[in-house]
Protein: TonB-dependent receptor
Organism: Shewanella polaris
Amino acid sequence: MISVTLTAKAVRRSLLVVAATSVVTTGLFSSLAFAADDEKVERIEVTGSRIQRQDMETASPVTIISAEAIRAEGFTSVDQLLQAQTSMAGAALGSSSNNGSDGVAQVDLRGMGSQRTLVLLNGRRMVNSGSGADSSVDLNSIPVAMISRVEILKDGASAVYGSDAIAGVVNIITKKDFDGFQLDLNGSTSSENDGETGEISGLYGFNTDGGNYTFGAAYSKRESVIQSDRSWTEPGYSSFIPTGSLDGMVQNDAGEWVDRTTGYDYTTSSYYQTPNERYSLFANMVQELDNNLVLTADALYTKRKSNQQLAPQPASVMLDVCDTDTDSSCVTLTDAMTDGGIAADDTGRVEYRRRITDAGPRIYSQDTDTYRISAGLAGELDINTGMNWDINYTYGKNKADSSIDNSINATLLSESVYANQDAWFSGDSLTDAIVNDISYTDNSNGGNELNVVSAGLNGELFDVSAGAVAFAIGAEYRYESGYYNPDEITIAGDSTAAQQDATSGNYDVFSVFEEVSVPFTEKLTGEFALRYDDYSTFGKASTWKVGLTYEATDDLMLRAVAATGFRAPSISELFGGDSGSYDYLTDPWGNEQDPQILVRYTSDEDLEAEESDSYTAGLVYSPSYVDGLSLTLDYWRFKVKNAITYLDVQAGLDACYADASDSACETFNIGSNGDLSDLTSTLTNVGSQDTSGIDFNLAYHFAALSLDWKINNDTTYLLNFEQEGIDYTNMIDGNFGAYAEVRNNFNIQAGQDSWNIIYSNRYIGQMEDLSTGDDVDAILYHNLAGTYYVTDMITLSAGVKNITDEEPSSVSNGSDGGTVPEVYDTIGRQYYGGVTVKF
């Protein structure tokens, strides 16, 4: 039983928490009704704590995005809606990532790396997914159609959830307790009549005696956008040209070998938006078995078929120069070549480069399947005021088959040049026979597997003068494995693409955890958490969390959290084979002809866990004299030490160039006179991150002019972001992404019972180009959306994103198209619409 006073206080606290959680759309808490004084108040679990509560109040800041807000703003994938939040930074992979993404979509909270943000599904771990041996979750495996809401915990939470929650947690809550049938149709297109998206989904649910069963299915398809189809795209310039070059020289019409003066425009083949096709099935069930026992389960299956496309393969091979006319497996330098200055190097070789356009563009394809099922039993014990127990099991599996059409075998290419020197050096198109001889389809496969068993108990221990002391305790066992098998030609190093080794490994971990919530006074509450993990790889880790909430007045709540965290090294970091990557770098010696330089990356089985400290402090203000207004202000700081990282290759190049005796030359395997043929970066535990900032939210709901109005504004001001001692605050770069000082989202909605209109804008502040020091312009995107409720059964929605068709800001070392597509909109103005039918 609960008193009227306590009920009123709970309602008041819930209003404060609407502000504290920075709710993007109102109406989210309509189901959290507090009962009259003769009924029991429902207890719920909140992201960031395992203690079930009578309200949503915690010391940690949480942003909640409802399904209605997701649809209204035209988001067709989870990564899009997350990357639009002001709390995101860096450059998380997504639909605009064409080079090296394998079609995955990730989240990068605070720009600290996708591997440092934990993704949960209904409060339990989601299996890592992608092309194999992945360190984070592919958000493509979670269809928007199944989402009820998304909760973003912007605080370190390792003491509650374990590894990976250093920067925070994204908890995706699926639709459940649904009764009836719902059909959704949604689609979009750009103002250039490309990049179309479409989705159809159905939801069916029914109630039973003491239970509910909800089932859903979704199909979505996304079309491509070619880079050169946008007028603002500057033509690309690559030293790999279709006619080929020998030691950087080409033949002119007179047969003379002269310096190459032309480049290849790769933007005609590369994507700004990658195509994607997804099929998803999902289900939720809740069934009361008796008065004190409840069975819950959820299941998810997603098949993703995706593509990326890059310009035809750039091939670079070192060819042996013949010493005599009778030598074979070598090239003979003609008089015209030697007259032009072409000569063998110290190893007796010359470099031949060619863009193999005769084979066609490189087409990357992925066919991935992701399964997840989670089931649990929960009950109540008649101890004290009642304690709740639960035991659950989660299984997840991801497998992927990947291919790259029109790949080139470098070994066969060299042999073909030796056998057909005139054909290769003439500058003419290659014959079909030659192309068929040197080209192949690169095939690889990989996967991930997750098993988790956990059990917990929570409730109230005893009463103190200010209320009940609540607790949660539990234990968990988790087993993870992963593998990735590149094509045999790639493993052997015979491909013109970078060499890569296979990856395979596994680990398990046993954990115990506890939380306690103590009301010191009616106004001051403390939250304490402690967790112990024992890994089969690096060993043991202990983390803790302390949080305080203080209701200074009925209008003002103060909150603060201090916590430690950790991230266990992933399977790919521990057991990954050496892999190569062509990174955009600047060669200070000027030896390299192209900005994409091959770097060999290596893993280390002896890696230790990363460690972190996090701090947040802020206030929630909901003034009683302005009905419907709430404000939150939070300071946050995250510090990571022993970070698992590849050292900054560009910084290593610059240090070695400045001082040839510097240890950087040895660390990165840089040879004499800037020889970068064995440029290497090894994973180590010497990395660090230190970032801090301020979050501000204003939410105001009021009535005026016979309309209901809702205003929401989110601002993140970045005070500092340092990594490995380098200050990236307010910097942008193609390799690291963007760390803008100011990001702001504004939203205003007006409407009545049957309709509403939403105007929103998204601001990314001015930054400095990391490579040149030039200013990179700020940008403001404007959006407009509307919803019309035709009947109780039919709802129509439509909108325009990027109304003014803003062009992305230019970045000198951009990852694609002279910009960073993961940060800026490269598609342009987009129109979208949808219809929902309920039965």
Residues 1-41 have pLDDT under 50 and may be disordered. The chain has twelve helices and 43 strands. The domain at 4-224+274-313+356-806+815-838 is CATH 2.40.170.20 (Maltoporin; Chain A).
